[in-house]
Amino acid sequence: xxxxxxxxxxxxxxxxxxxxxxxxxxxxxxxxxxxxxxxxxxxxxxxxxxxxxxxxxxxxxxxxxxxxxxxxxxxxxxxxxxxxxxxxxxxxxxxxxxxxxxxxxxxxxxxxxxxxxxxxxxxxxxxxxxxxxxxxxxxxxxxxxxxxxxxxxxxxxxxxxxxxxxxxxxxxxxxxxxxxxxxxxxxxxxxxxxxxxxxxxxxxxxxxxxxxxxxxxxxxxxxxxxxxxxxxxxxxxxxxxxxxxxxxxxxxxxxxxxxxxxxxxxxxxxxxxxxxxxxxxxxxxxxxxxxxxxxxxxxxxxxxxxxxxxxxxxxxxxxxxxxxxxxxxxxxxxxxxxxxxxxxxxxxxxxxxxxxxxxxxxxxxxxxxxxxxxxxxxxxxxxxxxxxxxxxxxxxxxxxxxxxxxxxxxxxxxxxxxxxxxxxxxxxxxxxxxxxxxxxxxxxxxxxxxxxxxxxxxxxxxxxxxxxxxxxxx
Length: 474
What we know:
The chain is of the alpha/beta class. The protein is built from 18 helices and 18 strands. Strand 13 (296-299), helix 11 (307-317) and strand 14 form a beta-alpha-beta unit.
């Protein structure tokens, strides 16, 4: 599990680490690590043509020092200085001493480069690129581009990207992950993120935002033991689907089964469709959910928003077990948020952006902050769907999912996610980790389902078991 830190936290940790160390020691370590990653991407450094896009300040200094390392190994390095008077003086001197050259910021000089190193703006930058930087970023689009710490034009704290930004193939970031690398448009602009250790582990605070890795998820996935039975593995109840939208119930139910639930009870209004597809499911036609014994409930996909659906929502939320609410259920919660606020048992809400606006303000460009605010207001775990899904707990803990894919933006995909998270809740995982783990598995399933072309939600459902096996196998 990797921690994610704000610019303020990174700056404070850097200052604490630099105290008592020689000036420039931290930059030297960062630049060396950056040059190693660039060399690995080039394969053959000697004779390679490397172009540095250099802005003012330390970010440009990192690029200049890294360029000097590459020049000493035989690379032809050209630094395009956007503001020669403000470029890092020490870095410029070292680059020129190593045989590199400096030039005006002419986009034509980017053509033919084997690698472009983006050192225009660092983690303190806000808003999109301006002036000459716009042309340089555009010229680099067709060339292997490595961003220094953060793609220029991306807000490191939020992932918000201006109109003009660098699109990196790889971002080499220093010390710790920043939100802008893993959420929002920044996650797309960053490409592959590679972390260089510069010693901040000793000075960073305990993280409140995390990115789960495969090993974390594998450790969290429930595995039955010899003494388990269908009840101890988790009994999940579903109120999903209807006569009008039976598919929502089928998808959520299938995901609960494939996700590992020991037993599934169905109390929705698409009983005929569920029986036909899943004979192992216990169907309780006409029963109120609160009459049934389960370890978790999934409610919302395809149930509608009429009075009967409202009654089902109120009944499920009156229970003392975890509940995950999706789709129509979120619309209903928007009308009666007190039903969630007054619960003592965990609740998970899984909105996409338009649904989120029904239960909270936003989401803003700072998706992590928006999810946190809603979670704290409602006293519930909020899973804000997106290419980089954000899971926020009422205590402020947040998880950002790294496995998302745009191919999951297909009808019914959210129903699969709901059933999957519900099965994890029923197994005993606490709500934030169940939501984060479910999002991770769902993302892997989406990637697998897309391997043969645009997937449907049924394809994603069928890929869940393979995703679980792939993650568990490491």
